[in-house]
Amino acid sequence: MQRRKYLCLLWVLLFSGVTMAQAQTSLKLKFKKSTIFAGIEVGSKGVKMSLVEIDKKAVRAGSFHLLKDSSVNTDFISFNEPTFAATLDGLTGMFTSINNKYQIPSDRIFTVVSSGVKGQAEKDNKTWWIQKLVDSFRVRIKEPERKVEVVDIKEEARLSHLGIVPEEKRFTTFLVDIGSGNTKGGYFPSDNTNEIRLFQVNWGTKSITNATEKRLEADKSITNYSRQLVRVLSGTPNTEIEYAVNVSGAYNMSDNIAFSGGIAWSVSTLLFPEMVDNNVVPVTYDEVQKFSERLVRNYNDFSTDNILKKISDNSVDKAAVTKEVKDVNKVFDQRALIAGAGLLLKIMRQFEGMYEKKQFYLVKNGQVGWVSAYVDEGAMESR
Amino acid sequence: MKDNKFYPLLTVSVLFLVVSFVLLCVLGYNFYKQQKGNKPTIAVAAPPNIMDAATEKTRDTLQKMYAATVSNFTPDTGLDSALNKADSTQVSMMDNKLGDVYKLKTEINSLLKDSSSSIADLELARYKINELQLKVDDLKTRNIDVEKENKRLRALLEQFAVSNNSVASSGGRDNAVIERPAEKINSTSPVFSASDLKLSAANDADAEVASADDAEKFVGSLVVRNSLVQGMGEVMLVLIQPDGKVLRNAWESGSFDTDGGKKIYSRKIKFDYNKGESRRINFSVPADNIQKGTYTLQVYNNGKVIGRVAKTVS
């Protein structure tokens, strides 16, 4: 009987050991000796999770590799009971999954609330929803001392830069995140990564689309939409963008201009489908301009079938291209793409000098950038 | 009655005669004065025989200058052979220059041979001879450039033929450098040529390593040359892994158009370039996981492969 008990215990130990090893090996590690950390972010649209591998040899922040990311849409900033419950479930579910499935202990999981949530809660005078979420989460995971930091916009921009831009381009790159309601970003004017020069414009893809729609009147055609978009972009957005770029001093200080956000992901996916595996794609002003013209005149070129037909390189993963193109077409329709590309071009134009040419990049996975950097900095502090 | 009219008529006739005589005297005086006024000019001007001598001396000097200039220019020899081998852009440029030279020669000849040419005509001839001198010098320089480029391309072709033979005879070497001359220096799209391609696997400290386990990146170099354009140049490096996929890096890789459709490059290199210069470019391509097997580096410029090199990592 005693022997049977030992055998059972041995089997349980063996099984859990194998499961742990499988969980770790299912992640494609980059470094020879590394530690895996996780970050969970409560954002405006939902909850995002990132698994980050940090090199054991790393002596300073920045040497990390993003292993996995996933998200769940919960619309927390509606600040009502159903969205609160969905957000709490998402947050707790991800924490438990990271803990159990990937065997990452609690002290290597970072939890944070984004500046978008903070800004909206302050605007609506509903900051208590954030506190309620944090308290409920602590109760659910049975960690009353769990740290859940609420970051501000400047800190988020700083962390985004650290998380997205590689070390060798850190001090020469101006990062611009084009969101749905605003555009923000910045650059490091000196080698101090604690000081970012912030850039912010109150226009994003959705706000440009809405402003254009309002001008359409009876003629709802794409031609009229395109004409009205030019007028919208030439108005207040143009003045704001020019002013913000000039005030930031980014033109003189940057060699590279990197764009993240939904429109950057969409343009790079449709314009360079063969680069489906690359998270960052170099692009020129002319390429985006021609793409923008094709969106108006030959939108059918960007259907999944037509994109696949034009890929001649057999090494390209066509299944992945199909999925990405379908995702883009689900998130952005023709008008949203035209508006987003128009806004992108407007900002790019500020950096398209006659003599000095900047290198433009489109970043696809920008949404996990800042939380990865947050985890990385937290991990370095804890070592 | 008749007697009364005779005397008045006689008086009028005499008066006419006197007035005519006075007018003839005035005319004669004016003629005399005019002749007298021209005399000093004739006295100051050089005698005709002295003026001719100075013009002839200038003409002789110019003839010598012209002869010396023309003797430096022998279009029937080197230039023609260069023209026969040059591409269409060069031929067209040199044709235009030659046309200018022949036109100037005709104009100078006619000015120098015309015995009635004035000093001003000879000054014009001097100006044209100077212009001719400049054009001949320019053509000579171009001729030398074309000859050099032809020699270089011939050498590359020979090298290519030799390496092709050696690869065929050895059944293909692991680290064979297969260099090709620029496939065609097209008149509308100037292409760089690449030579002396080198590729090796390296560790963090840029030291060459043979094992895939020790390798962190690829490093190498190549020499680019172009005798047609100057300014900014760029080449795309396409590093093909043993599994047939192009090695990619975030922030470094992108896509570009080639003669065979869109391709992905591992790295793009931009460089400043002076016409005719042989420019060595060093590069490194980081790789997360270096596989065992043969890596092939293709160098593209203007959508065309201008060089290839292979490296085996064990």
Describe the fold and architecture.
The complex is a heterodimer of chains A (about 375) and B (about 325). Chain A is an alpha/beta fold and about 375 residues long. Chain A is built from 15 helices and 11 strands. Chain A has helices at about 1-25, 80-100, 115-125, 130-140, 155-165, 205-215, 220-235, 235-250, 250-255, 260-270, 285-295, 305-310, 320-330, 335-350, 370-380; strands spanning about 35-40, 45-55, 65-75, 110-115, 150, 175-180, 185, 195-200, 255-260, 280-285, 360-365. In chain A, β6 (about 175-180) and β7 form a beta hairpin. In chain A, α7 (about 220-235) packs parallel to α14 and α10 crosses α13. Chain A starts with a helix and ends with a helix. Chain B has about 325 residues and is an alpha+beta fold. Chain B has helices at about 1-45, 50-70, 75-85, 90-115, 120-170; strands at about 175-180, 195-200, 215-225, 230-240, 255-260, 260-265, 265-275, 280-285, 295-300, 305-314. In chain B, the strands form 3 sheets. A 5-stranded antiparallel sheet of chain B has the order 1-10-9-4-7. In chain B, a hairpin with a 2-residue loop joins β5 and β6 (about 260-265). The termini of chain B are far apart. The relative contact order of chain B is 0.09. The interface of A and B includes residues 274, 275, 310, 315 and 361 of A.
Give the chain pair forming the largest contact, with residue counts. Answer: A-B, 19 and 16 residues
User: Please, how many helices of chain A?
Assistant: 15
Assign the structural class of chain A, choosing from mainly alpha, mainly beta, alpha/beta, alpha+beta, or little secondary structure: alpha/beta
Order of helices and strands of chain A: HEEEHEHHEHEEEHHHHEHEHHHHEH
Name the strands of the widest sheet of chain B in spatial order.
1-10-9-4-7
Largest sheet of chain A: 6 strands, mixed
Task: Please trace the helix and strand order of chain B, writing H or E for each element.
Answer: HHHHHEEEEEEEEEE
Q: Main β-sheet of chain B, in a few words?
A: 5 strands, antiparallel
